[in-house]
Amino acid sequence: MAHFAKLNSDNIVERVEVVSNDVATTEKAGVDFLNNFYDTNDVWKQTSYNGNIRKNYAGVGYTYDETKDAFISPKSFNSWILNDDTCRWEAPVAYPDDGEQYKWNEDTTSWDAV
User: What's the pLDDT tens digit per position in 2-15?
Assistant: First the structure.
């Protein structure tokens, strides 16, 4: 199955639809099918669960960055930084690698043990 994200005028994902691979033989074929089905002229971008297309699977509220050709999730915390290679938000401090569980503390910009 092929997955397509509908974008609004601000390149924000409004929904994700599934189209049969028999229909979506190309991205254009999938987009044409969806626009014909809904009788619209919407902007759709193909996405994939495994990240082979546009770095990350699109979700509602994600932004499509045309320059990076990638879907980017909403920013989790103000202090986090976008990794330009993965297009994922990362904490400014690495997650501890000691086998314990932690949660992010935005006030102290550090990981707190759970």
Answer: 999 999 999 999 99
Contacts for 46 with CB less than 8 Å, ≥ 6 apart: 2, 3, 4, 5, 24, 27, 30, 31, 53, 54
Whose CA is closest to 106, among 39, 93, 97? 93
Bridge-based pairing state of the strands 2-7 and 43-47: antiparallel
* Domain that residue 85 falls in: 76-114
In this structure, are 27 and 63 located in the same domain?
yes
pTM, to two decimals: 0.90
Q: Assign 91 a pLDDT band (cuts: 50, 70, 90).
A: very high
Domain count, the chain: 2
**Same domain, residue pair 15 and 53:** yes
With 0-12 CB in 10 A as exposed, 13-18 as middle and 19+ as buried, what is 70? buried
Percent above pLDDT 70 for the chain:
100
